[in-house]
Design brief:
Layout (H helix, E strand, L loop, with lengths): L7 E3 L5 E3 L1 E9 L2 E6 L3 E6 L13 E7 L2 E7 H4 L12 E9 L2 E9 L1 E9 L3 E2 L13 E7 L2 E6 L1 H4 L2 H8 L4
Parallel strand pairs: 4-13, 7-9
Antiparallel strand pairs: 1-2, 3-4, 3-10, 5-8, 6-7, 8-9, 11-12, 12-13
Amino acid sequence: MEQTNADASVDSRGASYAQTEKYLTFGMGNEQYGIEILKVREIIGLMDITRVPRTPDFVRGVINLRGKVIPVIDTRKKFEMEEKEDTDQTCIIVVEITHESIHLQVGIIVDEVSEVLDIATDSIEEHTDFGSSVSTSYIKGIAKTKEGVKILLNVEEIVSITEIQAGIETKI
């Protein structure tokens, strides 16, 4: 018998199971977010960030990570959330974004990292409509998990490479 559900696979015994994707989940305020684990390069504690003049307010600055200069985005400012003091839980998730042939590592500051979750693809609602005046291009989908609702982010849309390059070219 041929399997017709694109969200399910068949194991060697013929039993079907839902496909899953791995997401690194993190908290920002009272909300939980997730990004594809394959986009994550590493998680580091908050370190000294060098401010760069004339950058957008959501660009906190740059860090030197093992000899590589990496721009750091203040996710709270990017999402227009209330500002909050950094804590011992505040950390930087270094992600890799790609646009055409450009690959760039970027740090995103989050309140706290939660865990890596396997999320069934059939539990992700991809089409979220908050009205025409709200841009949701950075939202990949909304996942319903046992732990609650997770907002899954499209890391390439959180900040465009053009925005980042415009911000860090000032320092060169």
